[in-house]
Amino acid sequence: MSGLVTTLIIVGIVVVLALYVWITYNSFVTLRVRVDEAWSDITVQLKRRADLIPNIVEAVKGYAAHEKGVFEEVTRARAETISAQSPAEATLAEGHMQQALKSIFAVAEGYPQLQASQNFLQLQSELVDTENKIQASRRFYNGGVREYNTKLQIFPNNLFAKMFGFIAREFFEVENMAAISEPPRIQF
Q1: 156 prior amide bond cis, ω within 30
Q2: Contact yes or no for 39/141 (Cβ under 8 A)
Q3: What confidence score (pLDDT) does residue 181 get?
Q4: Considering the domain boundaries, does residue 158 fall inside one?
Q5: 129-143 pLDDT, tens per residue?
Q6: How many domains does the chain have?
Q7: What pLDDT shows up at residue 57?
Q8: What is d(CA 30, CA 7) in angstroms, rounded to the nearest whole number?
Q9: Cα 73 from Cα 184, distance rounded (Å)
Q10: By three-state DSSP, how is residue 184 classified?
Q11: Which conformational region is residue 154 in: left (phi greater than 0), alpha (psi within -120 to 50 degrees), or beta?
């Protein structure tokens, strides 16, 4: 009789432990997928902004063709944004893009006809909307990373996380927070 009780207790402990590992593993997978989805949202918004940039450049170029250096800077920043594969690369590209956008809008300020152009005004509006979406996507991504990384580091989860190969993710931080704390100022 005591052998049966001991066996049942051992089986119960093994079952509880197996359930804990199963639930923990599935929660790691769920959080990792959520972080991947959030990163995908960021890349979609960065791509949307990158697609707007050539239109803005063309609109400004028609009025300020002699500003070749500014246009090249914007083109380089756009390419860097598109090719960013990790949060660290995106962070660097984001800083360059913000500087490039400031430059092109500084050039645009010198051309009242451009500022009155309906096409340019619509592009500005779309850019502001996209910048807001990028900021919201970045907050969602960083929230997911925070939740995922916290779960990875809590004991005893950290033992299972290492065993199953789950690793911490990096936050999408920007080098110069002041530069992106709000969308580019493009009021004329």
Answers
A1: yes
A2: yes
A3: 52
A4: yes
A5: 888 898 899 999 999
A6: 1
A7: 82
A8: 34
A9: 16
A10: coil
A11: beta
The one-letter amino acid at 142: N
Q: What is the CA radius of gyration of the chain?
A: 25
Here the CATH number for the domain that contains residue 65 is 1.20.1440.20
In a domain, 121, yes or no: yes
Is residue 87 one of the residues assigned to a domain?
yes
* C-alpha–C-alpha distance, residues 34 and 143, integer Å: 10
Looking at residue 71, the DSSP 8-state letter turns out to be: H
Over the stretch 8-44, which tens digit does the pLDDT of each residue have?
Answer: 999 999 999 999 999 999 999 999 999 999 999 998 9
Host domain of residue 167: 32-180
The neighbour count for residue 124, using CB atoms within 10 Å, is 22
Q: Is residue 93 part of a domain?
A: yes
- pLDDT tens digits, 43-68: 899 888 888 888 888 878 777 766 77
